[in-house]
TrEMBL record:
GO terms for molecular function: transferase activity. InterPro entries: Acyl_CoA_acyltransferase. Keywords: Transferase. Gene3D superfamilies: 3.40.630.30. This is Transferase. It comes from Ferroplasma acidarmanus Fer1.
Length: 161
């Protein structure tokens, strides 16, 4: 498994085809099924990854296309992570092999990132329409929902890993 370095010194092994986002990804085509997500180009994810405590992992198909992307942050910070908060998870409908990429990215966070960092809790900020999907994966609503002007109701969900 390839190793990536998160922050300055945290080494995490990722399965083949998964890696941290790179500047060279910013020109690649990415189309989400969700109309609101279509406003977020890959360059947005790359810029976001350069901020403290933020990590973006992509799933790359053998032909070099991005089949999915996940944005998450380490809380309280990258040096003392206690939990992971997934903020955006999307598959690329412009890539023929993208089916299941969102699920696969989530499993990489649970099985590789959380385990390497000894993190026991993952939170997801989910749009309401995806609540049942995340519930089927073992995530439970925390009751700390909020309203976002762009996304409407956000359902906070959590899972112990």
């Amino acid at each position: 498994m390839p190793e990536v370095v998160i922050g300055h010194s945290i080494t995490v092994q990722l399965p083949h085809g998964f890696r941290l986002i790179k500047a060279s990804d910013t020109g690649k085509e990415f189309i989400s099924e969700d109309r609101k997500m279509r406003d977020y180009k890959i360059s947005y994810f790359y810029d976001w990854s350069k901020e403290d405590n933020n990590i973006v992992i992509v799933h790359e198909s053998p032909d070099g296309k991005l089949s999915g992307v996940v944005m998450f942050r380490l809380v309280p910070n990258i040096y003392h992570p206690k939990r992971i908060v997934v903020e955006m998870l999307a598959r690329n409908f412009a890539s023929a092999g993208s089916s299941g990429s969102g699920y696969d990215l989530l499993k990489v966070i649970e099985n590789n990132v959380a385990r390497a960092l000894h993190i026991k809790r993952i939170d997801i900020e989910a749009v309401k329409s995806l609540k049942d999907y995340y519930n089927s994966l073992g995530y439970e609503e925390t009751g700390e929902n909020y309203y976002d002007s762009s996304w409407k109701e956000i359902v906070n969900m959590s899972k112990s890993v």
